[in-house]
Design brief:
Order of helices and strands: HHHEEEHHH
Strand order of the largest sheet: 2-1-3
Number of domains: 1
Helix content: 40-55%
Number of helices: 6
Distance between the termini: 52 Å
Shape: globular
CATH architecture: Up-down Bundle
Low-confidence stretches: none
Strand content: under 5%
């Protein structure tokens, strides 16, 4: 019956998004973000901090008219904090390898193939330590950016069983 049907009486847009829908680059990043979230989250409890992170990420993407080529990398890097597998930065400076499987920095090569060596490790860490405000300071060329994206995707795959290949990755690799 129609009595069970609910109607919206009032709708207010808290943060109107002006550029996300009309800018194909920003739209591509937003689609990537949605795909990452869909494959990363099964079910979550109410988490105000996580909601604010997502809200701020979307607003930052919409408002940022500067360099956004690294936005998707920073989004994934910061998302690891909320998903519970952010890297342990203890002993970062002294160690040559980053173990993607354990999220730790090691002085000796891990006994498996899931690790980053010196240069890739340093770029990966640099990405992890920046935020949306200062992401323009990260100087990456296309090859480095794609390497970090591949490393982040591998890191997610190792820590989230449902995280498989992302269709939107190829689009971002073409754009950036």
């Amino acid at each position: 019956s129609n009595r069970d049907l609910q109607y919206i009486k009032e709708l207010r847009i808290k943060h109107p998004l002006h550029n996300l829908y009309i800018d194909p680059v920003k739209s591509s990043i937003a689609i990537f973000m949605a795909e990452v979230l869909r494959k990363s989250l099964e079910q979550t409890n109410r988490d105000e901090n996580f909601f604010r992170f997502l809200e701020n990420s979307i607003i930052s993407l919409d408002n940022n008219n500067k360099e956004i080529a690294n936005f998707h990398l920073l989004f994934m890097a910061q998302l690891t904090v909320f998903l519970g597998f952010s890297p342990n930065f203890d002993n970062y400076d002294n160690n040559r390898y980053f173990d993607l499987l354990n999220g730790t920095f090691e002085s000796v090569q891990p006994p498996h193939s899931h690790f980053l060596e010196k240069e890739k490790k340093d770029l990966f860490v640099q990405t992890m330590k920046y935020d949306f405000e200062n992401m323009g300071k990260i100087a990456l060329n296309r090859h480095q950016r794609n390497d970090i994206l591949d490393s982040l995707c591998e890191y997610f795959q190792l820590h989230i069983p449902t995280f498989h290949s992302l269709k939107s990755v190829d689009v971002l690799k073409e754009i950036f």
